[in-house]
Amino acid sequence: MTGKAFVALAVATSFSMLAIVSAVASTDNRSDDRGGRETGVVPCSLDGVNPVYHPEIFGNAAAAASYGFVRSADGTWHVRPGCRH
After folding, report:
1. Which of 18, 37, 59, 78 is the most buried (most CB within 10 A)?
2. How many domains does one find in the chain?
3. Helix (H) or strand (E) holding 84
4. Are 57 and 63 in contact (CB under 8 A)?
5. Phi-psi region of 68 (alpha: psi -120 to 50; beta: other; left: phi over 0)
6. 35-39, 65-69, 79-83: which range is least confident on average?
7. Based on the domain organization, do 82 and 44 belong to the same domain?
């Protein structure tokens, strides 16, 4: 391998690693403020949420209530009336 080819390969590899690190850093926005970043579930909104994929919330009545969700007698989930986040 010639010197120029080696340098080009090293530069390309460096840029690839920077892109990967940047992507990981931008998606790792965990939060405890119930802003929806950790779980993808936004308080007071069931838009696009499938309770099956979030047992840590919908399997625990207290956790669901902290997001503003209540379960009706027929088992469906609803946003608590007057919920604000």
Report:
1. 37
2. 2
3. none
4. yes
5. left
6. 35-39
7. yes
pTM higher than 0.70: no
Q: Which of these, 52, 53, 56, lies nearest to 67 by C-alpha position? A: 56
- 2 and 38 fall within a common domain: no
Q: What is the pLDDT of residues 37-56, one digit of tens each?
A: 577 899 999 999 999 999 99
Q: Domain range spanning residue 25?
A: 1-30
Amino acid occupying residue 41: V
For residues 71 and 23, which has the higher predicted lDDT (pLDDT)? 71
Say yes or no: 37 and 18 in one domain. Answer: no
- DSSP string over 4-54: HHHHHHHHHHHHHHHHHHHHHHHH----SSSSSTTTSPPTT--TT--GGG-
Cβ within 8 Å of residue 40, ≥6 positions away? 49, 54
Q: Percentage of the chain surpassing pLDDT 90?
A: 51
